[in-house]
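If your schedule permits, I should be very grateful for your opinion on a structural question. I would ask you to consider whether the tokens describe a fold that such a sequence might reasonably adopt. Thank you for your consideration; the sequence and its tokens are set out here.
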Amino acid sequence: RAVRPGGRVDAVDLSAPLLGVAAGRAAAEDLPLRTHVADVVAFGAPGSYDLAVCVMGIFFLPDVDAGGRHLLDVLRPGGRLCVSVWAEGAMVEAMRPLAEAVARVRGEEVAPAGSMGGLGTAEGLAGWARRLGAVDVAVTSHPLHVPLDGVLAGALVDGTAAQALLTGLDAPARAAVRAEVVARLGGARPVLTATSLVVTGRRP
């Protein structure tokens, strides 16, 4: 909506189904969105965008510094970079039980989602953006605490990157893991900490 009438938005992801959801929503509102099944670190010409946004994805890149520099490079001079990450300690209430359930099924220790590699603190995230070459860097914290029941626990197993912990398990094993996590979290009624940090900056 913000870029109409003359602008466009390119949505880039490795997940075709995810992009399909975005395309469907955009078409319903006649929004200028183009979707691309591609690796974001190889997408976009230098100096071609006003804004580059990466939502909860930078920590999945093999090299977060190289990936961040690419996002900055595709911006025109003065263009804005915006990157969100989980705050250090976020999602632990769900990821630890999931890792423990997977470990029992596999018969070996499985590490839960670990450190954000220094990006999970305001100081670390701001320092990272400055290392890339961004200026006018600012970080905001967005606290979020959500009651965690069986429905949300199941959704976290089924519909997030936490699925990576289940890679290689057959269908019965995956079902067993899901059932254990849902039973454990659904009965305990803990509060899920889902606090995020957002860093913004500009290309000089």
